[in-house]
Amino acid sequence: MADVSIRDLRNHGGEIVDRAASGEHITVTRAGRAVAELRALSRAPLSAATLLELRRPLPSVDPAALRADIDALLDSRL
Predict the structure, then answer these.
(1) Where are the domains of the chain?
(2) How far apart are CA 17 and CA 2, in angstroms?
(3) Where does residue 31 fall: left (phi above 0), alpha (psi -120 to 50 degrees), or beta otherwise?
(4) Which residues are CB-neighbours of 29 under 8 A, at least 6 positions away?
(5) What DSSP letter does each residue of 32-57 carry, written as one string?
(6) Per-residue pLDDT, 1
(7) Span 2-38: which CATH code?
(8) Contacts for 7 with CB less than 8 Å, ≥ 6 apart
(9) Contact 62, 69 (CB under 8 A)
(10) d(CA 63, CA 60)
């Protein structure tokens, strides 16, 4: 998390907002004391159709084979 003074925010607001929009968390300070945080807003949730389209290239999973693999790897006494 980066600290930015109010003066820097006033003088370089566009650049600082761009940094926040790209994922950086920024603390705004006044006289060396933290007074606010600047961060990107959450993105809008994806639609069901978009989620299905994103899943399409994933390989299919055989649940029985997956369970067998997990059982082979893990100690059943846990």
Answers:
(1) 2-38
(2) 12
(3) left
(4) 3, 4, 5, 6, 35
(5) TEEEEEE-PPPPPPPPHHHHHHHHTT
(6) 81
(7) 3.40.1620.10
(8) none
(9) no
(10) 9
Q: How many residues does the chain have?
A: 78
Cα 24 to Cα 8, 31, 56, 78, distances in angstroms: 16, 22, 31, 40
Task: Report the alpha-carbon distance of residue 56 to residue 67 in Å, rounded.
Answer: 22
Tokens 């993105």 identify what position?
43
**CA–CA distance, 21 with 27 (Å, rounded to integer):** 14
Tens digits of pLDDT across the chain (78 residues): 899 999 999 999 999 999 999 999 999 999 999 999 999 988 888 899 998 888 888 888 999 999 999 989 998 777
Token pair belonging to 66: 């997956």
Spatial distance between the Cα atoms of 68 and 70, rounded to a whole number of angstroms: 5
